[in-house]
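Proteins fold reproducibly. Take a tokenised chain:

. . .
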Amino acid sequence: MSTYFPSGKGLADNRKWFVVDAQGKTVGRLATEIARMISGKNNPAWTPFLDMGDHVVVINARHAKFSGSKNDQKLYRRHTLYPGGLRETTVKEMFEKKPEKVIELAVKGMLPKTKLGRAMYKKLKVYADADHRHSAQNPEAIEI
């Protein structure tokens, strides 16, 4: 008796599309489930070195929330690569300017920091409001 082992051929053809509504959801808990879906860990045939995940479209990112006092205390840091170029942004400011970026950064931090992780990240689509451009793929709505 032999164990099934995926070959890696035709993985892109078998990928599904899912829509997740982020309204009223906690960002961290939402991001962990999304990371599992786009990495393929919810797939019974999951293999660590293959991209087995599905595409995920997140809508209503503007209405996601953080628990506790993270709105004022959590900071996003980036550097401009110039001396003294450290820039800090709070969660509240980020939600006002780019609400999609909050969920994207949360999910990206939970993926591997390799070529495979970058390929997984490309399957995530985040929109601030309820409309998205992926209705042609007939995405399946799931509740997290």
Observations:
- The chain has a mean pLDDT of 94.
- The chain has one domain: 17-142.
